[in-house]
Write a structure and sequence with these properties.
Elements lengths: L17 E8 L31 E8 L4 E5 L6 H9 L6 E6 L2 E5 L2 E2 L7 E4 L11 H5 L10 H9 L15 H13 L5 E5 L7 H18 L2 E6 L2 H7 L2 E6 L2 E6 L1 H6 L4 H7 L3 E8 L2 E4 L2 E4 L10 E5 L4 E5 L2 H5 L7 E9 L3 E8 L2 E8 L9 E6 L5 E4 L3 E5 L4
Parallel strand pairs: 3-9, 3-10, 7-8, 8-9
Antiparallel strand pairs: 1-2, 1-4, 4-5, 5-6, 10-11, 12-13, 12-15, 13-14, 14-22, 15-21, 16-20, 17-18, 17-20, 18-19, 21-22
Length: 398
Protein backbone atom coordinates (compact mmCIF):
# COMPACT_ATOMS: atom_id res chain seq x y z
CA UNK A 1 0.00 0.00 0.00
CA UNK A 2 1.33 3.43 -0.95
CA UNK A 3 2.15 5.63 2.09
CA UNK A 4 -0.19 8.59 2.53
CA UNK A 5 1.16 11.82 1.17
CA UNK A 6 -0.86 13.68 3.79
CA UNK A 7 0.78 11.85 6.68
CA UNK A 8 4.25 12.46 5.24
CA UNK A 9 3.89 16.22 5.53
CA UNK A 10 3.20 17.31 9.13
CA UNK A 11 2.93 20.96 8.14
CA UNK A 12 -0.01 20.09 5.89
CA UNK A 13 -1.64 17.48 8.10
CA UNK A 14 -4.84 19.46 7.98
CA UNK A 15 -5.45 20.92 4.55
CA UNK A 16 -5.73 24.69 4.53
CA UNK A 17 -8.98 26.45 3.71
CA UNK A 18 -9.46 29.75 1.90
CA UNK A 19 -11.91 32.40 2.99
CA UNK A 20 -12.45 35.70 1.19
CA UNK A 21 -14.84 38.33 2.52
CA UNK A 22 -15.83 41.55 0.79
CA UNK A 23 -12.94 41.58 -1.70
CA UNK A 24 -12.82 44.64 -3.97
CA UNK A 25 -9.97 45.14 -6.42
CA UNK A 26 -9.17 47.29 -9.42
CA UNK A 27 -6.13 48.50 -11.26
CA UNK A 28 -5.07 52.14 -11.16
CA UNK A 29 -2.75 54.10 -13.46
CA UNK A 30 0.88 53.62 -12.47
CA UNK A 31 0.10 50.49 -10.45
CA UNK A 32 -1.09 52.39 -7.36
CA UNK A 33 -2.86 50.22 -4.80
CA UNK A 34 -4.15 52.77 -2.30
CA UNK A 35 -7.62 52.20 -0.89
CA UNK A 36 -10.35 53.47 -3.20
CA UNK A 37 -13.93 54.42 -2.42
CA UNK A 38 -16.27 51.48 -2.92
CA UNK A 39 -19.50 52.25 -4.78
CA UNK A 40 -22.83 51.53 -3.18
CA UNK A 41 -23.74 47.85 -3.46
CA UNK A 42 -25.68 47.00 -6.60
CA UNK A 43 -27.63 43.77 -7.11
CA UNK A 44 -26.31 41.03 -9.34
CA UNK A 45 -28.32 41.57 -12.50
CA UNK A 46 -28.20 39.93 -15.87
CA UNK A 47 -24.51 40.66 -16.29
CA UNK A 48 -24.79 42.31 -19.70
CA UNK A 49 -23.82 45.88 -18.81
CA UNK A 50 -20.16 46.44 -17.94
CA UNK A 51 -19.51 48.34 -14.70
CA UNK A 52 -18.47 51.92 -15.40
CA UNK A 53 -16.22 52.30 -12.36
CA UNK A 54 -13.45 49.91 -13.46
CA UNK A 55 -13.54 47.48 -10.54
CA UNK A 56 -12.02 44.09 -11.44
CA UNK A 57 -13.53 42.34 -8.40
CA UNK A 58 -16.68 43.62 -6.75
CA UNK A 59 -17.45 42.44 -3.21
CA UNK A 60 -16.35 38.81 -3.54
CA UNK A 61 -17.29 36.41 -0.74
CA UNK A 62 -15.95 32.90 -1.32
CA UNK A 63 -14.80 29.99 0.84
CA UNK A 64 -12.82 26.90 -0.07
CA UNK A 65 -13.11 23.92 2.27
CA UNK A 66 -10.28 21.61 3.27
CA UNK A 67 -9.75 18.94 0.64
CA UNK A 68 -12.24 20.58 -1.74
CA UNK A 69 -11.79 21.19 -5.46
CA UNK A 70 -13.61 24.36 -6.49
CA UNK A 71 -13.83 25.59 -10.07
CA UNK A 72 -13.57 29.31 -10.78
CA UNK A 73 -15.50 29.72 -14.01
CA UNK A 74 -16.11 32.73 -16.21
CA UNK A 75 -15.30 34.42 -19.52
CA UNK A 76 -12.01 36.18 -20.22
CA UNK A 77 -11.62 39.38 -18.23
CA UNK A 78 -14.10 38.50 -15.49
CA UNK A 79 -11.51 38.63 -12.67
CA UNK A 80 -10.50 34.97 -12.29
CA UNK A 81 -6.73 35.47 -12.50
CA UNK A 82 -6.89 38.57 -10.27
CA UNK A 83 -8.61 36.51 -7.59
CA UNK A 84 -5.90 33.85 -7.88
CA UNK A 85 -3.16 36.48 -7.56
CA UNK A 86 -4.76 37.83 -4.38
CA UNK A 87 -4.87 34.39 -2.77
CA UNK A 88 -1.28 33.66 -3.78
CA UNK A 89 -0.13 37.01 -2.38
CA UNK A 90 1.00 38.57 -5.65
CA UNK A 91 -1.42 41.45 -5.04
CA UNK A 92 -2.94 43.12 -1.98
CA UNK A 93 -6.73 43.47 -1.82
CA UNK A 94 -7.87 47.09 -1.77
CA UNK A 95 -10.87 46.18 0.36
CA UNK A 96 -11.84 43.03 2.25
CA UNK A 97 -10.03 40.24 4.07
CA UNK A 98 -8.38 36.95 3.12
CA UNK A 99 -7.83 34.01 5.47
CA UNK A 100 -5.90 30.78 4.92
CA UNK A 101 -6.68 27.95 7.33
CA UNK A 102 -8.23 30.43 9.75
CA UNK A 103 -5.19 32.72 9.67
CA UNK A 104 -5.64 36.30 8.45
CA UNK A 105 -3.09 36.91 5.69
CA UNK A 106 -4.44 40.07 4.05
CA UNK A 107 -6.68 42.92 5.16
CA UNK A 108 -7.24 44.94 8.34
CA UNK A 109 -3.62 46.08 8.25
CA UNK A 110 -2.28 42.52 8.00
CA UNK A 111 -0.13 41.25 5.12
CA UNK A 112 1.67 37.94 4.79
CA UNK A 113 4.24 37.47 2.05
CA UNK A 114 3.56 34.90 -0.71
CA UNK A 115 6.42 32.62 0.35
CA UNK A 116 4.94 32.27 3.86
CA UNK A 117 1.39 31.39 2.81
CA UNK A 118 1.79 27.70 1.96
CA UNK A 119 0.11 28.14 -1.41
CA UNK A 120 1.24 26.25 -4.52
CA UNK A 121 0.51 27.45 -8.05
CA UNK A 122 0.27 25.62 -11.37
CA UNK A 123 0.43 27.86 -14.41
CA UNK A 124 -1.04 27.48 -17.89
CA UNK A 125 2.43 27.44 -19.50
CA UNK A 126 3.98 25.10 -16.85
CA UNK A 127 6.64 27.69 -15.79
CA UNK A 128 9.32 25.00 -15.43
CA UNK A 129 13.03 25.86 -15.31
CA UNK A 130 14.51 24.72 -18.65
CA UNK A 131 18.04 24.29 -17.19
CA UNK A 132 16.85 21.95 -14.40
CA UNK A 133 15.88 18.32 -14.86
CA UNK A 134 12.53 16.97 -13.67
CA UNK A 135 13.83 16.02 -10.22
CA UNK A 136 15.35 19.41 -9.50
CA UNK A 137 12.27 21.19 -10.87
CA UNK A 138 10.09 19.13 -8.54
CA UNK A 139 12.32 19.88 -5.53
CA UNK A 140 12.71 23.58 -6.25
CA UNK A 141 10.23 24.86 -3.66
CA UNK A 142 11.40 22.61 -0.79
CA UNK A 143 13.15 23.92 2.28
CA UNK A 144 16.73 22.68 2.84
CA UNK A 145 15.81 19.99 5.39
CA UNK A 146 12.44 19.03 3.93
CA UNK A 147 11.78 15.37 3.09
CA UNK A 148 12.58 14.56 -0.57
CA UNK A 149 10.80 11.21 -0.31
CA UNK A 150 7.51 13.05 -0.77
CA UNK A 151 8.69 14.23 -4.19
CA UNK A 152 9.36 10.67 -5.32
CA UNK A 153 5.93 9.53 -4.11
CA UNK A 154 4.30 12.34 -6.08
CA UNK A 155 6.30 11.47 -9.19
CA UNK A 156 5.15 7.87 -8.83
CA UNK A 157 1.55 8.94 -8.25
CA UNK A 158 1.52 11.11 -11.38
CA UNK A 159 3.23 8.59 -13.63
CA UNK A 160 6.59 10.35 -13.87
CA UNK A 161 8.75 7.68 -12.24
CA UNK A 162 11.83 7.02 -14.35
CA UNK A 163 11.78 10.49 -15.92
CA UNK A 164 13.57 12.28 -13.10
CA UNK A 165 16.69 13.09 -15.17
CA UNK A 166 14.86 14.39 -18.21
CA UNK A 167 14.74 18.10 -18.92
CA UNK A 168 11.45 19.91 -19.66
CA UNK A 169 12.08 19.94 -23.42
CA UNK A 170 12.40 16.15 -23.30
CA UNK A 171 8.91 15.73 -21.77
CA UNK A 172 5.51 15.81 -23.47
CA UNK A 173 3.01 18.55 -22.69
CA UNK A 174 1.06 16.28 -20.35
CA UNK A 175 4.22 15.22 -18.54
CA UNK A 176 5.29 18.82 -18.08
CA UNK A 177 1.91 19.72 -16.63
CA UNK A 178 2.13 16.75 -14.24
CA UNK A 179 5.60 17.92 -13.21
CA UNK A 180 4.26 21.42 -12.53
CA UNK A 181 1.60 19.85 -10.29
CA UNK A 182 4.26 17.81 -8.45
CA UNK A 183 6.26 20.97 -7.79
CA UNK A 184 3.16 22.75 -6.40
CA UNK A 185 2.30 19.84 -4.08
CA UNK A 186 5.80 18.77 -3.01
CA UNK A 187 6.25 21.32 -0.17
CA UNK A 188 3.04 20.05 1.44
CA UNK A 189 1.02 23.12 0.46
CA UNK A 190 -2.50 23.00 1.82
CA UNK A 191 -3.83 25.15 -1.03
CA UNK A 192 -3.09 24.73 -4.73
CA UNK A 193 -4.13 27.28 -7.36
CA UNK A 194 -4.45 26.03 -10.93
CA UNK A 195 -4.60 28.73 -13.62
CA UNK A 196 -6.16 27.06 -16.70
CA UNK A 197 -3.63 24.21 -16.47
CA UNK A 198 -5.10 22.07 -19.26
CA UNK A 199 -5.69 24.66 -21.98
CA UNK A 200 -2.40 23.96 -23.82
CA UNK A 201 -2.89 20.19 -23.97
CA UNK A 202 -4.44 18.11 -26.72
CA UNK A 203 -7.92 16.72 -26.13
CA UNK A 204 -6.97 13.17 -25.09
CA UNK A 205 -4.25 14.27 -22.65
CA UNK A 206 -6.46 17.05 -21.25
CA UNK A 207 -9.33 14.66 -20.52
CA UNK A 208 -7.06 12.08 -18.91
CA UNK A 209 -5.19 14.59 -16.74
CA UNK A 210 -8.24 16.42 -15.50
CA UNK A 211 -9.91 13.11 -14.58
CA UNK A 212 -6.84 12.25 -12.46
CA UNK A 213 -6.75 15.60 -10.67
CA UNK A 214 -9.40 15.02 -7.94
CA UNK A 215 -7.79 11.73 -6.84
CA UNK A 216 -4.31 13.28 -6.71
CA UNK A 217 -5.52 16.22 -4.61
CA UNK A 218 -7.42 13.88 -2.29
CA UNK A 219 -4.29 11.73 -1.87
CA UNK A 220 -2.33 14.84 -0.89
CA UNK A 221 -5.04 16.35 1.30
CA UNK A 222 -4.86 19.63 -0.61
CA UNK A 223 -7.64 22.09 -1.33
CA UNK A 224 -7.57 23.48 -4.86
CA UNK A 225 -9.03 26.29 -6.91
CA UNK A 226 -9.21 25.50 -10.63
CA UNK A 227 -9.52 28.51 -12.94
CA UNK A 228 -11.16 27.79 -16.29
CA UNK A 229 -13.40 29.40 -18.90
CA UNK A 230 -14.75 25.99 -19.97
CA UNK A 231 -18.08 25.09 -18.27
CA UNK A 232 -17.75 21.41 -19.25
CA UNK A 233 -14.36 21.15 -17.56
CA UNK A 234 -15.54 22.81 -14.34
CA UNK A 235 -18.72 20.74 -14.07
CA UNK A 236 -16.89 17.48 -14.84
CA UNK A 237 -14.37 17.42 -11.98
CA UNK A 238 -15.16 20.09 -9.35
CA UNK A 239 -17.02 19.68 -6.06
CA UNK A 240 -18.40 23.20 -6.43
CA UNK A 241 -18.24 25.80 -9.18
CA UNK A 242 -18.04 29.57 -8.62
CA UNK A 243 -19.24 31.61 -11.61
CA UNK A 244 -17.73 35.07 -12.08
CA UNK A 245 -18.76 37.76 -14.53
CA UNK A 246 -17.54 41.35 -14.69
CA UNK A 247 -16.12 41.09 -11.18
CA UNK A 248 -19.29 39.73 -9.58
CA UNK A 249 -19.75 36.28 -8.09
CA UNK A 250 -23.08 35.22 -9.56
CA UNK A 251 -23.31 31.76 -7.97
CA UNK A 252 -21.22 29.18 -6.15
CA UNK A 253 -22.85 25.76 -6.01
CA UNK A 254 -22.48 22.08 -6.80
CA UNK A 255 -22.52 21.18 -10.50
CA UNK A 256 -25.97 19.61 -10.12
CA UNK A 257 -27.42 22.70 -8.46
CA UNK A 258 -25.77 25.00 -10.97
CA UNK A 259 -27.27 23.10 -13.89
CA UNK A 260 -30.72 22.57 -12.39
CA UNK A 261 -31.25 26.09 -11.00
CA UNK A 262 -28.91 28.84 -12.29
CA UNK A 263 -29.14 31.83 -9.96
CA UNK A 264 -28.93 34.48 -12.70
CA UNK A 265 -29.59 34.70 -16.42
CA UNK A 266 -25.87 34.97 -17.08
CA UNK A 267 -25.18 31.68 -15.28
CA UNK A 268 -27.87 29.99 -17.35
CA UNK A 269 -26.53 31.39 -20.61
CA UNK A 270 -22.84 30.76 -19.88
CA UNK A 271 -22.97 27.44 -18.03
CA UNK A 272 -25.92 25.81 -19.82
CA UNK A 273 -25.32 27.64 -23.11
CA UNK A 274 -29.00 28.54 -22.81
CA UNK A 275 -31.14 30.90 -24.88
CA UNK A 276 -32.37 34.18 -23.39
CA UNK A 277 -35.61 35.61 -24.76
CA UNK A 278 -37.12 38.97 -23.95
CA UNK A 279 -40.33 38.65 -21.96
CA UNK A 280 -43.15 40.94 -20.93
CA UNK A 281 -45.75 40.48 -18.20
CA UNK A 282 -49.30 41.06 -19.39
CA UNK A 283 -51.91 40.17 -16.82
CA UNK A 284 -51.45 36.59 -15.58
CA UNK A 285 -49.26 35.55 -18.54
CA UNK A 286 -45.72 36.09 -19.74
CA UNK A 287 -45.44 36.98 -23.43
CA UNK A 288 -42.35 36.05 -25.46
CA UNK A 289 -41.41 35.60 -29.15
CA UNK A 290 -42.27 31.90 -28.66
CA UNK A 291 -45.74 32.56 -27.28
CA UNK A 292 -47.26 32.89 -23.84
CA UNK A 293 -45.94 31.26 -20.66
CA UNK A 294 -47.41 30.88 -17.21
CA UNK A 295 -46.02 30.36 -13.71
CA UNK A 296 -47.06 30.43 -10.08
CA UNK A 297 -44.97 33.39 -8.92
CA UNK A 298 -44.46 35.71 -11.88
CA UNK A 299 -42.92 39.06 -10.88
CA UNK A 300 -45.14 42.12 -11.08
CA UNK A 301 -42.55 44.15 -13.00
CA UNK A 302 -43.18 44.33 -16.73
CA UNK A 303 -39.65 45.32 -17.78
CA UNK A 304 -36.17 43.72 -17.71
CA UNK A 305 -37.58 40.20 -17.77
CA UNK A 306 -35.71 37.40 -19.54
CA UNK A 307 -36.75 33.82 -20.21
CA UNK A 308 -34.06 31.12 -20.20
CA UNK A 309 -34.67 28.08 -22.40
CA UNK A 310 -32.00 25.43 -22.91
CA UNK A 311 -31.24 24.14 -26.42
CA UNK A 312 -32.81 20.83 -25.38
CA UNK A 313 -36.09 22.57 -24.45
CA UNK A 314 -36.69 23.85 -27.98
CA UNK A 315 -38.07 22.02 -31.00
CA UNK A 316 -37.60 22.87 -34.66
CA UNK A 317 -39.91 21.65 -37.44
CA UNK A 318 -39.73 22.32 -41.19
CA UNK A 319 -42.59 24.45 -42.52
CA UNK A 320 -45.04 23.05 -45.02
CA UNK A 321 -45.42 24.70 -48.42
CA UNK A 322 -48.72 26.23 -47.31
CA UNK A 323 -47.20 27.65 -44.13
CA UNK A 324 -44.34 29.21 -46.09
CA UNK A 325 -46.67 30.83 -48.62
CA UNK A 326 -49.24 32.02 -46.08
CA UNK A 327 -47.78 31.93 -42.55
CA UNK A 328 -50.06 32.45 -39.57
CA UNK A 329 -49.66 35.79 -37.81
CA UNK A 330 -48.65 34.19 -34.52
CA UNK A 331 -46.38 31.50 -36.01
CA UNK A 332 -42.76 31.88 -34.73
CA UNK A 333 -40.79 31.35 -37.95
CA UNK A 334 -37.04 30.83 -37.58
CA UNK A 335 -34.41 30.53 -40.28
CA UNK A 336 -31.53 28.05 -39.99
CA UNK A 337 -28.14 29.79 -39.81
CA UNK A 338 -25.89 26.74 -39.44
CA UNK A 339 -25.26 23.58 -37.48
CA UNK A 340 -22.49 21.92 -35.46
CA UNK A 341 -21.92 18.18 -35.29
CA UNK A 342 -21.59 17.17 -31.62
CA UNK A 343 -21.11 13.43 -32.10
CA UNK A 344 -24.50 12.32 -30.80
CA UNK A 345 -26.64 15.19 -32.06
CA UNK A 346 -26.66 18.51 -33.93
CA UNK A 347 -26.48 21.96 -32.36
CA UNK A 348 -28.44 24.11 -34.81
CA UNK A 349 -28.26 27.91 -34.81
CA UNK A 350 -31.41 29.70 -35.93
CA UNK A 351 -32.44 33.33 -36.30
CA UNK A 352 -35.73 34.47 -34.78
CA UNK A 353 -36.76 38.13 -34.95
CA UNK A 354 -33.15 39.26 -35.18
CA UNK A 355 -31.92 37.00 -32.34
CA UNK A 356 -29.72 33.91 -32.65
CA UNK A 357 -30.93 30.87 -30.70
CA UNK A 358 -29.55 27.33 -30.40
CA UNK A 359 -31.49 24.08 -30.65
CA UNK A 360 -30.33 20.48 -30.17
CA UNK A 361 -31.61 18.01 -32.73
CA UNK A 362 -31.09 14.26 -33.20
CA UNK A 363 -28.72 13.18 -35.96
CA UNK A 364 -31.52 11.97 -38.24
CA UNK A 365 -32.85 15.54 -38.45
CA UNK A 366 -30.92 17.34 -41.20
CA UNK A 367 -31.98 20.93 -41.79
CA UNK A 368 -30.28 23.01 -44.45
CA UNK A 369 -28.85 26.49 -44.03
CA UNK A 370 -31.45 29.13 -44.85
CA UNK A 371 -34.39 26.73 -44.37
CA UNK A 372 -37.44 28.33 -42.68
CA UNK A 373 -38.77 26.35 -39.70
CA UNK A 374 -41.35 26.49 -36.96
CA UNK A 375 -39.68 27.10 -33.58
CA UNK A 376 -41.43 25.98 -30.41
CA UNK A 377 -41.02 24.40 -26.98
CA UNK A 378 -40.78 20.65 -26.46
CA UNK A 379 -43.81 18.98 -24.88
CA UNK A 380 -43.37 18.97 -21.10
CA UNK A 381 -40.41 21.39 -21.19
CA UNK A 382 -40.29 24.74 -19.45
CA UNK A 383 -37.89 27.52 -18.65
CA UNK A 384 -36.76 29.92 -15.95
CA UNK A 385 -37.73 33.58 -15.73
CA UNK A 386 -35.17 36.14 -14.53
CA UNK A 387 -34.62 37.86 -12.25
CA UNK A 388 -35.61 35.31 -9.66
CA UNK A 389 -35.20 32.00 -11.54
CA UNK A 390 -39.00 31.51 -11.52
CA UNK A 391 -40.09 28.25 -13.22
CA UNK A 392 -42.48 28.83 -16.14
CA UNK A 393 -44.00 26.66 -18.85
CA UNK A 394 -45.98 27.26 -22.06
CA UNK A 395 -49.54 28.40 -21.45
CA UNK A 396 -52.33 26.26 -22.97
CA UNK A 397 -53.64 27.48 -26.30
CA UNK A 398 -56.94 29.37 -25.97
Amino acid sequence: MRPSLVASAPAAAAASAVRLEGIWQRYQPGGATAALPVPAPDPVGQGEVAPADGWTLRGIDLSLGRGELVGLLGPSGCGKTTLLRLIAGFERPQRGTLELDGRLVAGEGRWLEPERRGVGMVFQDYALFPHLDAWRNACFGLRPRQDRARVQRLLDLLGLAGLERRYPHELSGGQRQRLALVRALAPGNGVVLLDEPFSNLDVEVRLRLRSELPAVLAECGAAALLVTHDPEEALAVCDRVAVLHQGRLHQCASPMELVSRPATAFVGRFVLQGNLLRAERRGPLLHTPLGAFEGQALPAAASELQLLLTPEALRLDPLSTAEISAPAADLPIARVLGREFLGRDWLVSVELQGQTLRVRLPLERRLERGQPCRLGVQRGAGGLLYPGAVPVWPAPSP
